[in-house]
Amino acid sequence: MSAVRLHLCGILRAILRRSPVPILLIPPLLLLLQLTAYAQSANLDQGSNDKATTPLNPVSWVNGNLNANMAHFLEGYSVPYRAVLEGLVVNQTYTLVIGFDVRNSSKHALDYLTHFQRLSPHNVFSHGQETVNPLLNAPQPASYFTTTDVFTMPAPSSTGSPVAGQPATSFNALPAGEKQMTGYNADITNITYASQGSLSAANSETVVNITFTALKSTAILAWGAHIASIVDWGKDPVTGEPNSASAINGSPYHVRLKKWIINGADVNIGNQDRSLKTDAVFIPPSCSVAGPANACVQTAKLTYTATVDDANGLTYAWSIIGANTANAKIVNSTLGTIDVVPIGASFTFGSFNLRLIVTREGMKDTCYLTSHDNPGTTINIYNVDVNAGSDQTITNLDTAHLSASIAGGDGTYTFTWTPVTGLSNPNVGNPDFIPPSTGVFQFIVKGDDGNCQDLDTVVITVNEHAKPPCGITGPGPVCPGSQNEYTGPAPASVGSYLWSVTGDGTVSGVNNTQKVLINAANKCGTYQLRLIVSTPDGKRKDTCYLGVQVKDTIKPVLSGQISNANVACTNNIPAAPVIGVTDNCTAGLNVQTSTIVSDSTCVNKYKLTRKWWATDLCGNTSDTLKQVITVNDDVKPVITASFDKTVNVQCLKDVPAAPNPTATDNCNGNVTPVYSVTGSGSACDSTITRKWVFADACGNSDSVSQVIHIKDDIKPALSGSAGNVNVTCSKDIPAAANISATDNCDVTPGVHFSQETIDSTCINNFKVIRKWWAKDACG
Predict the structure, then answer these.
(1) Is 284 helix (H, G, I), strand (E, B) or coil?
(2) Which residues form the HYR-like domain (predicted)?
(3) CATH 3.60.140.10 is held by the domain 384-463
(4) Distance of CA 81 to the CA centre of its chain
């Protein structure tokens, strides 16, 4: 086939190259090319399970339409379909286009595609569901189909749906395995909606593209088409007719193979439409039973109600099944609502089960109380026995815990107590009773499970609760600032302690034990102790008090050695003596002191008066001790001056540096002198007098002097050479010699020069006499 296709392509190319050939020959050749290249075929089969009375298992594949003589389906089933595909090119990709009617004659027909095996539940037909085998009676034996592939269908759209969410909600509720298309010798690569039919139009079609790769020349695709159900689409609110297509007299369920798509080209597939008639689709009856599952033997009757999908054309058949140990019977077993009454005067302790069979058009549904599973909920007939509990004796401060119990019944009970006085909640089984007084209280409890009731009585005797002992022992009166211990009654008869104090005292440490420590205030006064005790059970308390005086009338007594003293200096003042004090109450007791300075004329000349006394916390003051210290400094400083007191020098520069005499004082230690100098020493015969005066803080003083005499009596000395010279001419007279002078005092004494000409007879005949001399500052 491939060779033929290539040959025809060569012919086409030759025609196109030769312009004389008529172009009109091209379309027939293209048609011939297409028919020769794509020789695949497809056949659409429906699964027939025959009539319900003669079911076929497994289903038979029919290459045609179905009716009541060939099939029996319920709404909500999926009609099995298979497409037998032959003449395929291995590894060629194909797209098979399938259409199905979602709406027909304004009713919902086929909602979406599913797995091919969906014929459950099947019990309404009185036999099990049939098996669907897509390879049954295939063109090739089952062993030929060596691969199986599945692909999940896409969910349908709910856009424009008259029932919100449908049919997507129905599709999404399916198990994952029921949403799959199956391919045999076909690798399914994609399933998409080419278009989705309107959910509100009178007639509409959904088109699905199934893309696969052929693994052998013969392949099979298998799926199911979901039959629209009244459960999903409901009834018309005006006419009461189902909105599903099973109400139509005809064949509204259509599935068709529309075309191939091969290499992007649409290829005709022929007439491949299959239909299902509505006389093969049934709406099964359904029922449920509601009513009491428990009742008291005193109950006169029990009423049970059936809920059905549609009462039109429906018959009811009620029955009691199993062991009827409760002695029950049905009044009329053919009604939708029945009464069950006792066979005799009353029910007996026991049980029974109910079954209802509803029938319409030969189809049945069996249900039981609250279930479709046999035997359903068992109905129990019983009685209740209430027990109010034991009588109790308590005190007026106790709480009685009542506790009622019930035997029998369904386990769901209500309680009612009377009277309600003192009860925490009269409508529970275990209320607390808080007695309002002493006395005898009787309560009646009623137990009720909704069907049966019972009464019982309990008596509570209430007596007066005894008080705890209370008393305080401890010291008094007490000293200010003292700590004192107080004791309450023995712990054997007390459950708790609580101490407190008011007035001039505070609690030290814990305040909830038998003993307590009280700190008295630092003053005279009173405090009052309070002790609250409770009984060991904590239910009754008592309070007792103790008043305590805080007082002191005895003055303190000072002790210590004290004597007056005379000293020369402040630093000789003796340290203050240690003064002790004793008192009958020692808290807050301290020796107080004062120091007064008087008659002060200088820092080391005055009187110092010291005083000591003590005052206790109650203001009692001791006798006063006094010490007088006289300070009198009359000693002048002592000078140390180890230098010449008289000095003679030639020059001012020879004056020695000033020495540093020192002095010490009996009080002040080293004393800094007041230094003065008279005379400048600038005259040739002069005197410099240096004086140091040492005085202490109190004006005691002494001094030392140094006198320096300055007198220069040494003349300057010349140095240099100036010998006599004889010359012929005036121009030969030498320059004056450079003569310098030195002096003991003057660093650069001035040198004087004079020149005189004598005995001159002509310009070159004379004498020149030159003289040099020096003179210091003192002449």
Answers:
(1) coil
(2) 640-710
(3) no
(4) 58
Q: What is the dihedral of CA 342, 347, 348, 349, to 10 degrees?
A: 130
pLDDT of residue 744: 80
Architecture of the domain defined by 557-632: Sandwich (2.60)
Phi, then psi, of 442 in degrees rounded to 5? -115, 130
* Chain centre distance of CA 263: 61
pLDDT of residue 254: 98
For the chain, the structural domain boundaries read 2-36, 41-280, 287-382, 384-463, 483-550, 557-632, 638-711, 717-774
Whether the pLDDT of residue 40 is over 80: the answer is yes
Phi, psi of 762 (to 5 degrees): -155, -175
Decide if 79 contacts 46 (C-beta within 8 A): yes
Structure tokens at 565: 């003293």
Longest CA span, the chain: 206
Summarised one tens digit per residue, pLDDT across range 15-38 is 333 333 333 333 434 433 343 345
Give burial (CB, 10 Å; 0-12/13-18/19+) of 356: buried
Give pLDDT, residue 712.
Answer: 79
Separation CA 277–CA 685 (nearest Å)? 167
Dihedral angle sign, alpha carbons of residues 242, 246, 251, 255? positive
CB atoms within 10 A of CB 651: 20
Q: What is the dihedral of CA 580, 585, 589, 593, to 10 degrees?
A: -50
Cα–Cα distance between 632 and 109 in angstroms, integer?
A: 139
Q: How do strand 674-678 and strand 685-695 relate by DSSP bridges? A: antiparallel
Cα 569 to its chain centre, rounded Å, is: 79
**Mean per-residue pLDDT for 744-769?**
86
N- to C-terminal Cα distance for the chain?
161
Classify residue 179 by its DSSP letter: G
pLDDT > 90: percent of the chain? 65
Q: What one-character-per-residue DSSP string does 650-667 give?
A: SSGGGPPPP---EEEETT
Please tell me the class of the 638-711 domain: mainly beta
Spatial neighbors of 662 by CB under 8 A, at least 6 apart, are 639, 640, 670
SS3 assignment for 398-467: CCEECCCEEEECCCCCEEEEECCCCECCCCCCCCEECCCCCEEEEEEEEEECCCCEEEEEEEEEEECCCC
Which CATH entry fits the domain spanning 483-550: 2.60.40.10, 3.40.50.2300, 3.30.499.10, 3.20.20.140? Answer: 2.60.40.10
557-632 and 638-711: identical CATH topology: yes
User: How far is 102 from 197, CA to CA, in rounded Å?
Assistant: 6
Number of H helices, E strands in the chain: 4, 55
Torsion (CA) 318, 323, 325, 330 in degrees, nearest 10: 10
Tell me the β-bridge partners of 97: 209, 259
Torsion sign, CA atoms 186, 191, 195, 199: positive
Confidence bin at 719 (pLDDT 50/70/90)? confident
Average pLDDT, the chain: 90
Average pLDDT over residues 500-511: 96
In our burial notation (b when 16+ CB lie closer than 10 A, e otherwise), range 468-485 reads bebebebebebbbbbebe
